[in-house]
Amino acid sequence: xxxRIGVYPGTFDPLTLGHLDIIRRGARLVDRLVIGVTxxxxxxxMFSLEERLAMVRxxxxxAANVSVxxxxxxxxxxxxxxxxxxxxxxxxxxxxxxxxxxxxxxxxQLNDRIETVFLMADVSLQPIASRLVKEIARYGGAIDKFxxxxxxxxxxxxxxxx
Length: 162
Ligand code: ADP
What we know:
The chain is an alpha/beta fold. It contains six helices and five strands.
């Protein structure tokens, strides 16, 4: 049978424990999971694309069937290019729902051979959002409950250099 490939797209600015949980659980559903790190200039990321790629690669290095690539095209084109049959997204409570529902609907119209699959955020990781992690860190708050320890250091170094 053909290999089942999934793509997990995101900005990962920075990578959080919530993202890692979706990656770990998602990787069990497919033969290969390709994490797509978007350039997303509209979000004015704290970390450059290269820094985010390195961060996600470092934190997923022990996952044998996970790879990390950049993408700056239409998500459906990226998924098609990777030979994926599914797109993986994480869902936090109701906040993500409307946007994700709409995006999945439009993506289905673009290419109905690729399914969007949602994993419910782990209850304990549900409130974690990259945007809030950055905000908390900028005000000097502790972010070690929300991101891997090496990312705590990445954020501290970035803020020290700003
Ligand atoms: P995007 O710019 O595509 O929203 P993000 O890096 O913010 O990129 O998120 C990537 C994916 O991870 C999205 O599907 C998002 O809903 C999911 N996600 C983000 N934080 C969490 C979390 N704490 N738990 C589960 N899923 C999450």
